[in-house]
Amino acid sequence: MNEKEIFEMTKHIDDQYILEASPSPRKNIKLKKRIITFGIAAAITASLSVGAFAAYKAFNKESVATYYDSSAVEKIEQKGYVSEEVANNKHFDLNLDSVMKDNNCIMAVVSVKGLDETAENYIAQSTQMCCNLVYSDNNEKVNGFAAMFGWQPYEKGKAYPMRLCVPVNTVMGVVDLSRPIRLDFIRDENNTVAVDKDFFKDLSLELKDIKQAKSDKFYSADGKMLDVSEFTIVTNGDWDENAELTADKTIIHYKDGTSEALDQKVNAITNNLTPENKSVTIIDLKTLIDPENIDYMEYLGVKYTRK
C-alpha cells in the first residue's frame, strides 16, 4: 500500500454504546463499522497561522454536549479542558472546543463548518475528516494517526461537532503527547465528492498546551492493568478479542461504598493494535470521573486494585 495506510479503528466498536447526548431520552445511533483510510501525502509545510485568528471565543457547550453529559460539560469548562484554537480556509471553519489528554490519547471535540456547498457535501457524505500528524516544533512527521468523525446526521448550514481521538500507541507508531502536534487536513480517499487539489490548502489545527487529566493504575491478581483517567479506561494489551465487550461489565467501586456500571456513560469502546501486535482497548467515557475517588474496578468480571 504505497499511498495509503488503513487502520481499522472501529473494528470492535459496539454500536449500542455510541450514544447521542441530548436532553431527550437517549437513543442508539446505528453506525456501520467502517475502515477509516488515511492517505499519505507530502508534508504540508505552509500551515495556517492560527495566531492571527485566535481571539477569545466563548466555550461552546452545545458542541461539547454532543459527546459529554451535563456534569462533564461543566467540569470540562471548570478544569480548563478548553481551547481557543481555530483553523480555516476558504472552504472550512474549524473550532477546537474542548481538548484533554491522559497517558493514552488526546480526546477533543471540534466544530466543523462547511463554508460552501462542496464542503457541506463533503462533510455530509462520510462525516469524517482525515489528516496527517506533524510535530509542530520541528515539522517532523508523527508515526501515528488521528481519527476525526461525527456520530450524528449532518445538518447543512450548521457547525458540525466531530470527535477527535489521537491514540498514543497504535500499529502505525507511538505518539509523543508532550510535544505540540499539528493536524494537516488531507482528502479522505473514501470520500467520492469531487474537490480540487487546493481544497484543504492551509487547513491545519494546532494541539498544544493541553492539560493532563488525572489518572491512576489498577491491577488484577494476575498482573493485568487498567489505566483509568478522568475520561478513559484503557487496557494494557492483554484484552481477549473473544471477550464480550459491554459497558455494564465495567464497574467502578468508589471509596464511599457506592458503585456504578458504565452502561449509560460510554461513547464508544474501541480496540487498537500496537506495533508489537498487542491489542489495547479504550473505553471512551461520556462523563468525567475522579480516579482518586475509586476504591477498585471490575472489568469483565475481574477485580482490579491499586498496588
Percent of residues in beta strands? 35-45%
Through-space gap between termini: 44 Å
Structural class: mainly beta
Order of helices and strands: EEHHEEEHEEEEEEEEEEEEEEEEE
What is the number of strand segments?
Answer: 22
Mean pLDDT, to the nearest integer, reads 82
Radius of gyration: 19 Å
CATH architectural grouping of the largest domain: Sandwich
What name does CATH use for the topology of the largest domain?
A: Immunoglobulin-like
- How many helices? The count is 3
- Helix proportion of residues, in percent? under 10%
Low-confidence stretches are 1-55
User: Which sheet architecture does the biggest sheet show?
Assistant: 9 strands, antiparallel
Number of domains: 2
Shape: globular
Q: What does this 3D model show about the protein?
A:
This protein is mainly beta and 307 residues long. The chain has 2 domains: 26-207, Immunoglobulin-like; 215-305, Immunoglobulin-like (Sandwich). 8% of the residues lie in helices and 36% in strands. It contains 3 helices and 22 strands. It has helices spanning 61-64, 70-79, 117-126, and strands at 4-7, 36-39, 86-88, 92-101, 105-114, 128-135, 140-141, 147-149, 160-167, 169-170, 173-174, 181-186, 204-207, 215-219, 225-229, 232-235, 250-254, 259-261, 266-273, 279-285, 294-299, 302-304. Strands 3, 4, 5, 6, 7, 8, 9, 12 and 13 form a 9-stranded antiparallel β-sheet that branches. A 5-stranded antiparallel β-sheet has the order 14-15-16-20-19, with no helix packed on it. A hairpin with a 2-residue loop joins strand 15 (225-229) and strand 16. It starts with a strand and ends with a strand.
